[in-house]
Structures are given as structure tokens and as C-alpha cells.
Amino acid sequence: MNTTSIKKFYRIDAYLVLCHTLLMAFGYGLWKLYPHIQTKPDMSGLFFMIISILGGFAGLIMLAITLPRLDRSVHNLSVNKFILALLYWISSTIIFVLFGISKFFFNNPLVLLVFVLVFFSSVYLSVIRLADMRQKDWLILSGIFGAIVLFFFLPEL
């Protein structure tokens, strides 16, 4: 097996791990330098947990559709990409929490963009871009996410 073909599948993951590490260090520094001083109990922990779990479910749905479309000739590519996606989810949650408990982003809905952009762009660059997606797969993905949006955000229909 040619090792240069294997390296091209994991090169973007090295860059993503570096970006996640730098963002975690930046979030930790932001939290240490500008912490939010809690004056009364709030529900921010529940908010972080719900957003992280919903993002993880959405990521699992995307992985369930895209992982079977990865190249089968590379040994354990699907398993390794699944493990890397789990690590991206955990590190994105840590980045989300660290940014969310700083003074600048506390109770700011823009902190959701931090989680969404970091996690879903990592999953896209690491897995979806490499997968041989058919038009039917894109329709399945959009149908599932469309049904979730209709179920949760439009209950009056």
C-alpha cells in the first residue's frame, strides 16, 4: 500500500488538531484573563450541555451517512475518522464552554457560532469532503435535517 495516498487522508486532520489546540489555549487564556464573575445561579451549564448534545447528534447523523462513502482501500479509515470526529466534538465543546464562560461571550448568542463553526467545519473538512457523496446522500441529509427543523421549530404545523 502506498503511504503517500494514506497521508493525504490525514493531512487536514493534523491542521485541524493544531487549530483546535490553539483555540482551546486561546479560550483558556480568555477565561483566565477575563472570567465571568457569577453573582447569582444561572442555567448556563444546562445551555452548554443541551447545545453540545444536539450538535453531537447532528454530527452523528452526518457521520452515519458519510462514513460508508469513504475509501475502503485505506485500512481503518472510517474508524479513524469516526474517532477523530468524536475528538473534534469534545474539543469543540471545550472551546464552546471556555468562550461561553468568559466575560465577553457570557449570555451572548454569538457563542453558538463558535461551536457550530468549529465543530461542523471540522467534520466537513475531515470526513465529508473526502467522502464520495452521491446526490441521494445529500438529499437524505437535507431531508433528515429539514424534518428536525420542522419538528422542533415549527410545532404549530
Strand percentage, roughly?
A: under 5%
Distance between the termini: 54 Å
**What's the rounded overall pLDDT mean?**
85
Described by strand count, sense and barrel closure, the largest sheet is:
none
Q: Specify the number of helices.
A: 5
Structural class: mainly alpha
Q: Report the principal-axis shape.
A: flat
| N-to-C series of helices and strands | HHHHH
Which value, in Å, is the CA radius of gyration?
A: 18 Å
Total domain modules: 1
Report the uncertain regions: none
Describe, in plain words, how this protein is organized in 3D.
With 157 residues, the chain is mainly α. The chain has one domain (3-20, 43-153). Helices cover 73% and strands 0% of the residues. It is built from five helices and no strands. Helix 2 (44-66) runs antiparallel to helix 3 and helix 2 packs parallel to helix 4 (111-128).
Write a brief structural summary:
The protein has 157 residues and is mainly α.
Question: Layout of helices and strands, plus pairs?
Answer:
Layout: H1 3-33, H2 44-66, H3 77-100, H4 111-128, H5 135-153
Helix pairs in contact: 1-3, 1-4, 2-3, 2-4, 2-5, 3-4
Keyword list:
single chain; about 160 residues; mainly alpha; about 0% strand; flat
